[in-house]
């Protein structure tokens, strides 16, 4: 009898645990990994401006409205973590569900209190690789309409795995897009375009300095949350697309 009672208790606990696990699974519009350069080229003032930019973004009403938007079949939620990279990479905030303004503000509070990962070199690829791993791990028990890696930095890779190798591996796994924001250097933006950016609706942005980072990261995050590309196509590209559309319509008419 005692063994039967113990087995019953164990079964009840197991069922309860299973229910809690199932209940904790999330379905979000976007699972987003913030990958932030904290290498030695970024001094304490620049680091604070960079982190404050992310903090302010999650307190911004426009960003919060984009997250909680339930139009067009959206769930009105995202899951986001924060990774810092130098020579290697470290997850500083684990994946957090944001489905309300209050939750966004709470995540901003976490950012304001995060400790800096001290590492001198610039392992952009290390950051991408860790972001991809954490996204794949999160998706084992949850689901998302889109998986995005958000990279910000002020220098090219000089440590660890190659960014292009990490990018290609991430896109071959569970990541849909990798975007980047280059700080202080348009040459760096070109480097990010060639070695970091990839996937559906991927893009890069440029911040002229760490003071300009605040507005740039808000623009970037809003695009990532809504699954859009904030870079407008040049007029020539629109003409080309219109021409392609016209040819396709002509072919359809000929077939008819």
Explain what this protein looks like in three dimensions.
This is VWFA domain-containing protein. It holds the Pfam family DUF1194. Residues 1-25 form the signal peptide. InterPro entries: DUF1194, VPLPA-CTERM, VWF_A, vWFA_dom_sf. The chain crosses the membrane at residues 231-250. This protein has 256 residues and is of the alpha/beta class. It has a single domain, classed as Rossmann fold, CATH 3.40.50.410. It has 9 helices and 7 strands, in the order αβααββααβαβαββαα. Strands 1, 2, 3, 4, 5, 6 and 7 form a 7-stranded mixed beta sheet that branches. α2 packs across α8, α3 packs parallel to α8 (213-226) and α5 packs parallel to α6 (163-172). The relative contact order is 0.14.
Question: What layout of secondary structure does this protein have?
Answer:
Layout: H1 2-24, E1 27-37, H2 44-59, H3 61-68, E2 78-85, E3 89-98, H4 101-112, H5 124-139, E4 143-153, H6 163-172, E5 177-183, H7 186-195, E6 198-199, E7 204-207, H8 213-226, H9 235-255
Parallel strand pairs: 1-2, 1-4, 4-5, 5-7
Antiparallel strand pairs: 2-3, 5-6
Helix pairs in contact: 2-4, 2-8, 3-8, 5-6
Rounded Rg:
21 Å
Structural class assignment: alpha/beta
What is the β-strand count?
7
Q: Report the β-strand fraction as a percent range.
A: 15-25%
Helix content: 40-55%
* CATH architectural type: 3-Layer(aba) Sandwich
CATH fold field value? Rossmann fold
- Terminal CA distance reads 79 Å
Question: So what's the overall shape?
Answer: globular
Describe the main β-sheet briefly. 7 strands, mixed
CATH class (first level) name: Alpha Beta
Low-confidence stretches: 1-23, 233-256
Secondary-structure element string: HEHHEEHHEHEHEEHH
Number of separate helices:
9
Count of discrete domains: 1
The CATH superfamily appears as von Willebrand factor, type A domain
Mean pLDDT: 83
